[in-house]
Design brief:
The protein has 503 residues and is an alpha+beta fold. 32% of the residues lie in helices and 20% in strands. Residues 11-500 form the Amine oxidase domain.
Amino acid sequence: MARIVIIGAGMSGLAVASRLATLGHKVTVCEARDTYGGMVGRYERDGFAFDTGPGLLTLPAVYRDLALKTGREPLEELVRLRPVDPESRHLFPDGTAVSLPNASRGGVVQALDGAFGPGAGERWATVLNHGRTVWEATRRPLLEEPLPADPTALHTDPYPVPGTAPARRGLFGRRRGPRRWTLADVAAEELGGHPGLTALLHEHALRFGLDPRTAPAGATVLPYMEQSFGVWYVEGGLRALADAFFRRCEQRKVEFRFGTPVARVVVEDGRVTGVQTKGDRIDADLVVSSIDARVLHTQWMGPAESSDEWPASASRLHGVPGRVAVLLALRGERPAGTPHRTVVHAADPAAELAGVFDPGVPMDGRPTVQVLRPDDPSLHPAGHEAVVLTATTPSLDLDWGVPGVPEAFADRMLDQVDAAGLGLRERMLWRVVRTPEHTERETGSFFGSVPPPALAGLDGDLLQAPNEDHPGLYLTGGAAHPGGGLARVGMSACIVANLIGPA
């Protein structure tokens, strides 16, 4: 039995703690805040409740596996899951609207043909078929296994660029075309530059903080996964998922020390031997850190002599965008037939991308806004509605601490959704604006950024830090392999638990 200290009680911390305790280890979790869940947070006021992080679950198989491997109850006995159908409704600046069914690629084809004309669905299906090729090539090395000691094979994008030689089975040995394809190239070439289809494709990248102009074509795996495996809602909000696995940790005798920030990771004779909190030292045979890798290396293990000593992914987190969320308490009931998720696309997509990703370019226009409107009476008083708006923004270029900046951006988000006909402002009782500063303060995420998922291509620029970091130290969570997103941090915890093994 090993003594293991886990830094951080976010979802990856809860997941790895429950797995390791089930394997027979003595597990202690140190959490700086007074609660668990990390980015899976909750805001409550006047009988309203809101998820402050992700609001929907993809790849629920990750948490089904966690539930079964750490206890006898299936996930559906821990939380109530229901598929979101339609998966999303998209509103475009020219007035076109399309609702996409959940986990039905054939249904998506029909919906796109109906909205954009015959042939649109076939174009989209071709792109998602290529996304399936990427999924099949990268699923094991990018989601299920530790990052290879030599990740060179993952430096190449497995997206089958038209005109190149057919790929051999698997990730290795694919011949590339004369240049790298980006997601924007896919939109221009395979989607014919159609503005609606382009907006659909780019929105998946933008939501994960990826620039479609530079993201590898293999990022098509993101819409492929969502439309193939479906999107799910946890009744009571995703915070209920964190509640369930916190209880599982308690059942497995995990010790939690809340309000206990770690001041330093103790390294002796080249090996991590514990952590120093502000109160005392906790000795450990192993330490698992779920915090941002760059914070870990620059603040808790002593400053590196050069950025070359940081894990490669950690030195790139500086440029990752953040998210703004507007929590809306609305008077009046949710209108019948309202979709759970609506995406209102920006009128000027090029200006939006420049404002989010190009240094020095102001983000002046109305952004693409995701609107989550769950049909869940537990989230609001009777006769009212709880709504969450989110948009991707620069995490550094906007000074969120300046009075009026967050409110002005929230006004633009509301203007955007109401211009599309949602009519939310007139029903508003109150609102709360949450910026990247909240993310940084509450989760320790560097600069309030949200790490993107790991992807193959770009010479490895989108790979995250390996899970084995230093003798006696393991990394999990969004800033470690296989990257950000609720499903991936669950996979990260599984990989780390398998690396450590049973007591």
